């Protein structure tokens, strides 16, 4: 009998909030697209900005044909997220646009999420050094006492990385590594992505049913057998 899995209980829709999503040069951009989609599907609005390195990695990992100067990022993201061009729920800003609304505490951003968050961006934010809109938005969240979630992605972590994460945690940021669990018995890559996205939504205070919630080990019975892989001898058949 497989382990019990349950979805998050249905909740009343959240009031509409506008979130800031910063894309940096770390690996893990499928998390960012899934997170953006989940927020929009739940009626929220989104401000997005990507660093130069973030544009390159987004283009590589997600197969989006984005110009390296980011000039068509808004159009490409809208298409990938199933939005009409110009949909006001999605606003995209160049990383150099320090005059953009997210650069000010008066913008009342629901939460600032750097997903994925590179170690370079982490270091600059932890030092209070804002070289672009992504880092400035994170700095604003700190100074205004708002939710800042850093979906860090690196392996292994150096002592410097760990010290920067500790500093940010002490300042009130949420350090949420892009490290999916396996206790929910994922069957697909999407399951792993959804697990991390669900964690981010929880910390952002967004009601959701994106990922399975833990309800305990199965009362009895073995774990289900994984599907056979091409070129691999199926389990239990060797020597027959």
Give an overview of the whole structure.
The protein has a single domain (16-211), classed as Rossmann fold (3-Layer(aba) Sandwich). 33% of the residues lie in helices and 15% in strands. It has 7 helices and 8 strands; from the N terminus they run E-E-H-E-H-H-E-E-H-H-E-H-E-H-E. It has a 6-stranded parallel sheet, with helices on both faces. Helix 1 packs across helix 7 (189-204) and helix 4 (119-126) crosses helix 6. The chain starts with a strand and ends in a 26-residue tail after the last strand. Residues 1-13 and 234-240 have low confidence and may be disordered.
What is the CATH architecture assignment?
Answer: 3-Layer(aba) Sandwich
What is the terminal-to-terminal distance?
Answer: 26 Å
- The rough form would be described as globular
Beta fraction = 15-25%
**What is the H level of CATH, i.e. the homologous superfamily?**
Flavin prenyltransferase-like
The total count of helices amounts to 7
Number of domains: 1
Please provide the count of β strands: 8
Q: Mind summarizing the main beta sheet?
A: 6 strands, parallel
CATH topology, by name, is Rossmann fold
Rg is 19 Å
Which labels suit this protein?
240 residues; alpha/beta; Rossmann fold; six-stranded parallel sheet; two-stranded antiparallel ribbon; 7 helices; globular; disordered N terminus; disordered C terminus
Topology at a glance:
Elements: E1 5-7, E2 18-23, H1 29-41, E3 45-50, H2 52-62, H3 73-80, E4 90-94, E5 112-117, H4 119-126, H5 133-144, E6 148-152, H6 159-170, E7 174-175, H7 189-204, E8 212-214
Parallel strand pairs: 2-3, 2-5, 3-4, 5-6, 6-7
Antiparallel strand pairs: 1-8
């Amino acid at each position: 009998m497989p382990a019990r899995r349950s979805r998050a209980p249905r909740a009343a829709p959240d009031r509409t909030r506008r979130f800031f999503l910063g894309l940096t040069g770390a690996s893990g951009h499928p998390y960012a697209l899934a997170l953006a989609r989940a927020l929009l599907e739940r009626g929220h609005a989104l401000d997005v900005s990507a660093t130069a390195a973030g544009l390159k990695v987004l283009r590589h990992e997600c197969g989006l044909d984005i110009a390296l100067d980011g000039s068509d990022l808004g159009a490409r993201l809208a298409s990938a997220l199933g939005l009409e061009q110009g949909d006001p729920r999605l606003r995209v800003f160049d990383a150099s646009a320090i005059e953009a609304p997210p650069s000010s505490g008066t913008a009342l951003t629901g939460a600032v999420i750097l997903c994925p968050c590179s170690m370079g961006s982490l270091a600059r934010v932890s030092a209070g050094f804002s070289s672009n809109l992504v880092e400035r938005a994170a700095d604003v969240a700190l100074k205004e006492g708002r939710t800042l979630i850093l979906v860090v992605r690196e392996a292994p972590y150096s002592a410097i990385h760990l010290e920067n994460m500790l500093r940010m945690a002490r300042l009130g940021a949420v350090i949420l590594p892009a490290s999916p669990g396996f206790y929910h018995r994922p069957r697909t890559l999407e399951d792993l992505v959804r697990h991390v996205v669900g964690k981010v939504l929880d910390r952002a205070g967004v009601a959701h049913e994106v990922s399975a919630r833990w309800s305990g080990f199965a009362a009895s019975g073995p774990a289900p057998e994984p599907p056979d892989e091409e070129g691999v001898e199926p389990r239990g058949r060797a020597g027959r």
